[in-house]
Amino acid sequence: MLDIGFFELVALAVLAVLIFGPDKLPKVIQDVSRTLRKIRQFSESAKEDIRSELGPEFKDFEFEDLNPKTFVRKHVLDKDELGLKEIRNGFDFKSEMAEVTDAVHGRESTQPASSAGGSGTPDLLKKQATRDVGTPPPFDSDAT
């Protein structure tokens, strides 16, 4: 829940004993737990009020769905009606980035050309690879 390990918990307990003392510590713990219980009750009653105000058409509404990650995961990625997993797995960005990096640095590609060689599309980065290492790249004022 709070991602607190054993040593952190022990350190918090020792710190609480040092700050409040062993005689006041039970009273402080009761007060904190009572306050947390009241906050929890308040939030639950607010959620119920919102659900009752929204009406019966929103009876399956969950407040966790307001988080964008949860909403997308629940409504888009779980159903996968569009085949997004196949599309996402079809891209191999690591090999494409390696080819671009090799072309920029003027090295020969260490990986075989996957789709560029077989599809007939020209490799636009080959012109940059033939440039001398000591010369700066051409300046394009439209690109800046």
Automatic annotation (TrEMBL):
Please tell me where this protein is predominantly located: membrane
- Which stretches does the entry tag as region Disordered? 101-144
Q: Which UniProt keywords apply?
A: Cell membrane, Membrane, Protein transport, Translocation, Transmembrane, Transmembrane helix, Transport
Stretches with biased composition (Pro residues): 135-144
One of this protein's GO BP terms? protein transport by the Tat complex
Q: Name the residues that span the membrane.
A: 6-25
Q: Per UniProt, what is one GO molecular function of this protein?
A: protein transmembrane transporter activity
Q: Which residues form the signal peptide?
A: none
| Keyword Transmembrane attributed | yes
Superkingdom, natural source: Bacteria
Give one Pfam family, short name only: TatA_B_E
Name its cellular compartments.
Cell membrane; Membrane
Family, per entry: Belongs to the TatB family.
The task this protein performs is described as: Part of the twin-arginine translocation (Tat) system that transports large folded proteins containing a characteristic twin-arginine motif in their signal peptide across membranes. Together with TatC, TatB is part of a receptor directly interacting with Tat signal peptides. TatB may form an oligomeric binding site that transiently accommodates folded Tat precursor proteins before their translocation.
Output this protein's name.
Sec-independent protein translocase protein TatB
Q: Organism, per UniProt?
A: Streptomyces netropsis (Streptoverticillium netropsis)
